[in-house]
Amino acid sequence: MMLNCFAFLLVLSMVQSTKLEDKQPNIIYILSDDLGHGDVGFTGGKIKTPNLDRLAKEGILLKQHYVQPICSPTRSALMAGRYPIHTGFQHSVIHPGEPWGLHLDETIIPQIMKEYNYSTHAVGKWHLGMHKWSFTPAQRGFDDFFGYYLGSQNYDSHMRGAGYDLRSDYWDENGKFVDEVRYDLKGQYSTELYTQRMVDLISDKRNQDSPFFIYMAYQNVHAPHMVPQRYIDQYSTHFKDKKEKSTDCDSALIPLL
After folding, report:
1. What residues act catalytically?
2. Which pTM does this prediction carry?
């Protein structure tokens, strides 16, 4: 939990400490869903995570902080910079059909970033409310959103129960809010879709005068544990005993990050 509040403050300090005459930094915040401490190579885990290991080696590793163990509380703390006990997320997550979310009185990161002339983009999982449009990301400070509103959905079909949940939300040239449900992407693996969206955003925004903020909230490694076979095959001989081999699918989810 402290890590989320620290991250909130860190992002804001990066923005506020920049002198007006200096170029403001572009900021990408990558959130992995339900990733365990022992699930990465740089903490001594057996799962191969070369990209994350390189980021840890070249960056700063925080070892005296902690987060919430489940998804919605973690997201509420990150976005609002407050403990879940103060945002109503202290007990559980938002389930389908539940009429609540992160309260609209909360000022969240993208709204503050807009005050500093940042373009703001959300990719991946939201899970902070969808019962009213005003609770969805593109109406809470993000210029656009590509991803899904809930959680625990199928990585390929993008279904949660009987509902399809993969969309592109944005504001058109006339200032009208558009919610485009992306049925055309059914059958495509979510992690690769989200990664490509982030790459496209960086390519499109990196040479513009105004800075950008990307909130990249991956579906990995949250249940249901689904991964293309080509990633599972990488672990066919990696684990020795049966108990470890039962985690092949889980393990293959992580290097995708």
Report:
1. 71, 127
2. 0.90
